[in-house]
Write a structure and sequence with these properties.
With about 110 residues, the protein is α+β, with helices and mostly antiparallel strands. The chain has one domain. Helices cover about 30% and strands about 35% of the residues. It is built from two helices and five strands, in the order E-E-E-E-H-E-H. Strands 1, 2, 3, 4 and 5 form a five-stranded antiparallel β-sheet that branches. A hairpin with a 4-residue loop joins strand 3 and strand 4. The longest helix is centred in the C-terminal third of the chain and has 22 residues. It is rod-shaped and about 80 Å long. Bound molecules: zinc ion (ZN). The site of zinc ion has 9 residues, from loops.
Amino acid sequence: MKTTQTLHTARLNNNCPTCFATDGLELTFSQEKQTNTLYDKTEKEINSKMYCHTCGHDIFPVSWTDDIERVYDYHKKLATPSSTGIRPKPLLYILMLVAVIVVAGIVYYFIS
Ligand SMILES: [Zn+2]
């Protein structure tokens, strides 16, 4: 299962390139996380999204002004990524423990 983890959200005072409102822009940085019963895996890539609450549009980088880009760079530094890689869940440890017990049992059976 893939989930999105929000790292940093900021409301901007910049003009929206679509509707020119100054109070609608919101910038969100997020990271994708893959979850299953055995482990969590966080993707390295940080996604960013700009949305205008006034006109209800996603604002794509192509229509960003220089001001928006400056603010974007500033907020990008504030978005601290989660540590990437695989984080095992308790079930994985339990399965490993069961495997060790089974192997130990087999070894014990053949020795005795
Ligand atoms: Zn807008």
